[in-house]
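Onboarding guide, step 5: your first structure request.
Type a short instruction followed by the sequence, for example:

Predict the 3D structure of this protein.
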Amino acid sequence: VQFVESGGGLVQPGGSLRLSCSASGLSLDSFAVIWFRQAPGKEREGVLCIEHSGYIIYYDNSAKDRFTLARDNAKNTVFLQMNSLTPEDTAVYYCEPDEMRCPHRGELAQYDLWGQGTQVNVSA
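The system replies with C-alpha cells like these:
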C-alpha cells in the first residue's frame, strides 16, 4: 500500500493550487481521506476530510470557504482544491486514508503520517 501527495509549489497570495492524493494497493473510494498540514515550527493540524459519501468535514475554519475536496475514482485520487491562498497556508500537506470514517477533531492526533507530503509555499 502506498499513497503519494503531489501538486505543491510556490504560489502568490490570492492564488490557487490543486493537490493530489494518489494511492496504489488500495481503492481510495472505499476510504475517508484526511488532509493534514504542518507549517514550519508549528504542530501538525488536520485541515479537512472527505467521507465515503463525499461529505466534507472541515477542521480548520479558515479553510471552509476556500478549500474543497473531490474524488476521481477512475484515477484513484482525491484532489484538494485550495483557493485564495494566504501566507498562513504555507506548510507541508499530507493525506491519510481511513477505512472507517473521517475522525472527530479530538481523534486527529492519533494518526501517523506515512506519506512524504507536498510542500506549499504562499509568498509574494
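Each response can be followed by summary notes, for example: The first strand starts at residue 2 and ends at 6.
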